[in-house]
Design brief:
Blueprint (H helix, E strand, L loop, with lengths): L2 H21 L4 H14 L6 E8 L4 E4 L4 H13 L3 H7 L3 E4 L9 H10 L4 E9 L3 E9 L7 H48 L3 H15 L3 H13 L3
Antiparallel strand pairs: 1-2, 1-5, 3-4, 4-5
Helix pairs in contact: 1-2, 1-6, 2-6, 3-5, 6-7, 6-8, 7-8
Keywords: Kinase, Transcription, Transcription regulation, Transferase
InterPro entries: ANTAR, CheY-like_superfamily, GAF, GAF-like_dom_sf, GAF_ANTAR, WH-like_DNA-bd_sf
Protein name: ANTAR domain-containing protein
């Protein structure tokens, strides 16, 4: 990857993150779509890309796909419980398939990919991993041997910057979600204080009891009470 190319991608990601923060974007999947399209432009040989999100319960979903094949390939992976993107997400940091027809790993996945798609080369990078969910950034090409060693190095750089940008947006989303929850709980407390002539601590304890008895998150209970009050209930 040339210095100019690397700088161009970093600047594009930085501009994207600044724009998203200025706009207070809340749709993380839309952010991933922007990041994936940006990364695809900088990887020679790649014809499409997508992000695989895998959960510990076996569910697989695709976000940020640049066309229909990433989602179809993830569906094949979920169907057979195997595949390069799942391996990248859960087990290894980098996975490369040079030719689906010659690949010995993930035989069911490769057969499905050959039968249902024109994709023959795959390059997958782990983006993040925790105890419940993992993600991988994946690049695809219809030609065999589309990704050489330089592509792997470049893809790793792209994946690293994508993961960092995603992490920033996720933290911002979590922070704004926490603020929103605090605000709605405050509204519910004030409503209970006025209606039942109790103090703030007693109102909060009442919300906690309602949350525990209904097995519902505290913020959700608060929102239900506020919405009921607004409806006149």
């Amino acid at each position: 990857m040339t210095t100019d190319c690397r700088t161009g991608f970093v600047l594009e990601v930085a501009e994207l993150v600044c724009h998203l923060q200025d706009e207070h974007a809340t749709d993380v999947d839309a952010v991933l779509g922007e990041l994936t399209h940006s990364a695809l432009k900088f990887l020679p040989g790649a014809q499409c890309a997508g992000i695989t999100i895998a959960s510990s319960n076996g569910k697989v979903r695709t976000v940020g796909a640049t066309d229909r094949f990433p989602a179809l390939l993830d569906e094949i992976q979920q169907r057979h419980c195997e595949g390069p993107c799942l391996s990248a997400a859960w087990e290894q940091h980098i996975i490369r398939i040079d030719d689906m027809a010659a690949e010995q790993r993930w035989p069911e996945y490769c057969r499905g990919a050959i039968d249902e798609t024109p994709i023959r080369s795959v390059l997958a990078f782990q983006l993040f991993a925790d105890h419940r969910t993992m993600g991988a950034l994946n690049f695809y090409a219809e030609q065999p041997n589309a990704f050489d060693h330089d592509a792997v190095e470049l893809g790793l750089i792209l994946a690293t910057h994508t993961a960092l940008a995603w992490s920033m947006v996720r933290r911002d989303e979590q922070f704004r979600s926490a603020l929103a929850s605090r605000d709605i709980i405050g509204q519910a407390k004030g409503m209970l204080m006025e209606r039942f002539k109790i103090d703030a601590l007693q109102a909060f304890e009442l919300l906690k009891r309602l949350s525990q008895s209904s097995n519902t998150p505290l913020a959700a209970v608060a929102r239900q009470l506020v919405e009921a009050e607004q409806r006149g209930g």
